[in-house]
Amino acid sequence: xxxxxxxxxxxxxxxxxxxxxxxxxxxxxxxxxxxxxxxxxxxxxxxxxxxxxxxxxxxxxxxxxxxxxxxxxxxxxxxxxxxxxxxxxxxxxxxxxxxxxxxxxxxxxxxxxxxxxxxxxxxxxxxx
Length: 128
Fold this sequence. Notes:
Blueprint lengths: L1 E6 L2 E4 L4 E2 L1 E6 L5 E8 L6 E6 L6 E3 L7 E6 L4 E6 L8 E9 L4 H5 L5 E4 L3 E6 L1
């Protein structure tokens, strides 16, 4: 089992920045690819960004490409998305998730079905 706890959400004005964190405990963190998804009210959960176990590969949804940067620190068992130039449409609950390290390619990382463990989510609200 892997336990994931997100933090860093909050209220920010459009154009501002937030850095979320996801702390993992349990089984070896470095064995897992990590991803972030989000869900806005009335909408389905959608892929945001992901990073491979070694940080070699990163993947982003088109909607956040160029604005969000995902990174991880395996020594601290933590993954971070740095979110810049935030827009009101970025408002959502953001979820951290862990996938098997064998995940490969954008399609795999972007599929919520590939993720084995999920955090409880952290709210991000961007005001206009």
